[in-house]
Please model this.
Amino acid sequence: MIRVRKIEKAVELNRAELFRFGTALLFIVCIMLFAIVQAKAGGHSVLLVIAAMIGGYMAMNIGANDVANNVGPAVGSRAITLVGAIVIAAIFESAGALIAGGDVVGTIKKGIIDPALIANPDTFIWLMMAALLAAALWLNVATAIGAPVSTTHSIVGGVLGAGIAAGGWRIADWGMVGQIAASWLISPVLGGIIAAAFLYLIKRTITYQNDVMGSARRVVPLLIAVMAWAFGTYLMLKGIKQIWKVSFPMAAIVGFGVACAVYMLVRPYIQRMASGLANQKENVNVLFTVPLIFAAALLSFAHGANDVANAVGPLAGISEAIVGGSVASKAAIPFWVLLVGALGISLGLALYGPKLIRTVGSEITELDSMRAFCIAMAAAITVIVASQLGLPVSSTHIAVGGVFGVGFLREYLKVSYARTIEEIRAHHEADRPEAVAEFLERFEAADVTNKGEMLRELKRTNGTKLLDKGERKGLRRIHRLELVKRSLLLRIAAAWLITVPLAGILAAMFFFMMRGIMLP
Model:
């Protein structure tokens, strides 16, 4: 009987996997059929059909891997269900791609190679096809092993590798490549620091206070207003830049106007909600649920507007080279190409996105609505700061860095608190157990300000540090706590490090294979 149940379970898993694979294959076939019609109507070659197929495959892998970073924290915090997150992300990713994806896109992502050095359109077509295929294949592998990686870095690596194979080492802009390599460190560190800073601010101003809900009524509307400013500015700079390009001061002013309007709207709403909740820090999460859902939707819209170019940029460049017979650094995006990107991202998210959503949302560290809110804030603010400083950053690295940031902050705070309790016990060694218990009871009931005063008083009465250096090291070993999964940290870091070189090597191999097949 047990063996029969195991067989049935295996069949169910295989059936689900076959359904996903079959649906993805059907989408690719539909793209090929449509591209065949387009190619015949314009008298173009079969290369357009192949390029469209690879572009659709790339779009699905972007949806499966990259979109998870926008909705994963919201799902992990249980602010929204997995199905709800997929629906919201699919709608807003598609809307961002179709509404604000732009009419013209750069064919060479980030300008890492000089298209002027590739005079032959056929060579350019092979180059871009190899780059797309290499990036898509690496994203597929990364999704399978549960590693969220940057799609931008994947396509950059692909273009770089195929470009070097086509035109030699001089074709690359190594200064830009160096900036992209620097973003491996810049993006997660900035994201982690900003997310941790916001979480610490929430703890100091709300959850560490005696009157938790009273503090929440004052502080949460302000935090939501800051979020509104960040997302208003972020969308002006990144989300709708194809429709309306604005300077940073103008975007910040518009964001401030949005923040003021949102503050006036949410303040009475938060007051009503908080008044009906018990004075417990767990209930503060309820106040962040709706803003977190809006944040996931806005991040998805901005991602669709920006990162659809990772899938359709090279495809649009290939289409331009086939139709126009020349290599261009900018290419018009046919609507059907934009539609391939939007539908592919949505389908990839629905079919294969849940695995990465769970990884980002719950497997790295435990998230609640407060922590997920801080990660969303970090994503928007880091992009704003980095864009003004001219630093290249990855939205994937920012979001994952934010998750690790809040996890490591929680570790630090919990371990520090445990050590403080042990130091208090050590100071009261000569006292009666009742005195120790009474002091600890008062200490745990006090807010953060009074806790500090009580510790300072202990140090004054003791005359020296409560414990010497050796004793403190011993306590660190005793109270070592891991709230962040280290194995995932190593796996993700390794995947980030090899993304550009591996995609580059694959793209170079694919380019030589294509050239060998196509040349007489």
